[in-house]
Amino acid sequence: MSSFYLSKPYQPPPAPKNLPISDPWALFGGISPKRFMKEYWQKKPLLVRGAIPAFSLASQNSTPSLTSPISYEELVELSEHDDVESRLIQSKPWRFQHGPFQKKAVPSLKKSDWTLLLQGMEAHHLAAANILSWFRFIPDARLDDLMISVAGIGGGVGPHFDSYDVFLIQMSGRRQWRISEQKDLSLNPKLPLKILQNFQCEQEWILEPGDMLYLPPHIAHDGIALDAGCQTWSVGFRSPSFKELLQEGLWRLAESLEDIPELEQKFADPKQMATENAEQLPMELIKQLSNQVEKLKLHQIDAFLPGVTAYLSEPKQQAFFNGPAKPLNPNAFLKHLTQKELKPSPQTRILSLGKSVYCNGDEVTKNQVPQIVAAWITLSAKKALMTHKLSNIHGSSLYEAYLAGWLVFDQ
Ligand code: SIN
Ligand code: CO
């Protein structure tokens, strides 16, 4: 081997702020995100060879081959942290453990039949955040996270299905994927993991670094590592149940009634007549309550969309925010904002409902001056803000979010 490096870490670039969603992308095998959504999203699997062309270009040009920008050692180190959701799965026989792990608990690359899974990697590594940024042609509300798996030869989580849409990007080593559109999704009741009882492989491929496989929900699949240190990066999209959306929306709607002082007013029934059915809920109460429901438009969808949006903007459970060690005072903050980009911290979620913006579960545009509202709208849409237009941010939700570590300046 003439080259000093056997392999070189691939550094994924961040996506441009305005994604060219009508242009063909290598990531989707030469079709545009628009066409991908129309033909594949939630419909059928898509295998893309050379989804990240840099990998095959490097291997053709006798330059060092490319590998994952995050090493096995770094991943093991991350699995030791309690703010990282990690799992270790060993096969033969199947075993399952939750992190955080001690260094010794994660098998070495020489061992076989194990895999370490790390969720929410976009919050811990810029390369993962950059990969995720290419998927912003799918609504932010649907995005879950980027999970990284690293495995020894033979490692995998077994044949299973997910309720998620997932893009499985091969980043290091090879992985064999076997998939099936089978209807029988019954699980083996004897195992500590969700493993299909009767997996009937219909299609199989070996994915090389830079290849990608998209799977819609409920496609049975089984990925087995063929090389030690095999890494698969999965970009996952959640879809909450209607029960979850309604419960969370209604709960927040109930809370919001606190802000309407008129509702303290008590029910009164001067028109109540003598009744022979004293056990029945009074008609007068039903009538007046029904008027309130209508007046507050509680029977209309708009009433609880704020609660649903707030819910979907909640950060992950493990999210941890560190305010700046030496916070800038309001004037210094404004000056900074003219020169550096202010961005959501990697664990922050920002969603919009029309012109209202929700950040980490709070409606941050509520009771704010128009300048601040405009700043949040930009932050939500572009996930970055640099501006000369702000003049007073003291006490604003924008400055508060900066102090809380929800928003951070680009280095
Ligand atoms: C893996 O990356 O090993 C598993 C991903 C999956 O099948 O969901
Ligand atoms: Co899966």
* Biggest sheet strand line-up: 2-11-8-13-7-6-4-5
CATH topology of the largest domain: Jelly Rolls
Q: Given the C-alpha coordinates, what overall shape results? A: globular
Low-confidence stretches: none
- Secondary-structure element series: EHEHEHEEEHEEEEEEEHHHHEEEEHHE
Percentage of residues in strands? 15-25%
CATH architecture of the largest domain: Sandwich
CATH class of the largest domain: Mainly Beta
**In angstroms, what separates the terminal alpha carbons?**
38 Å
Task: Give a short overview.
Helices cover 24% and strands 21% of the residues. It is built from ten helices and 18 strands.
Summarize the structure in words.
With 411 residues, this protein is an alpha+beta fold. The protein has three domains: 3-237, Sandwich (Jelly Rolls); 242-269 and 281-306, no CATH class; 330-409, no CATH class. Helices cover 24% and strands 21% of the residues. It has ten helices and 18 strands. The strands form five sheets. The chain has an eight-stranded antiparallel β-sheet with strand order 2-11-8-13-7-6-4-5, covered by helices on one side. The protein has a three-stranded antiparallel β-sheet with strand order 10-9-12, with no helix packed on it. A hairpin with a 4-residue loop joins strand 4 (86-90) and strand 5 (95-98). Helix 5 crosses helix 7. The longest helix is centred in the middle third of the chain and has 15 residues, at 242-256. The radius of gyration is 26 Å and the shape is globular. The model has no long low-confidence stretch (mean pLDDT 95).
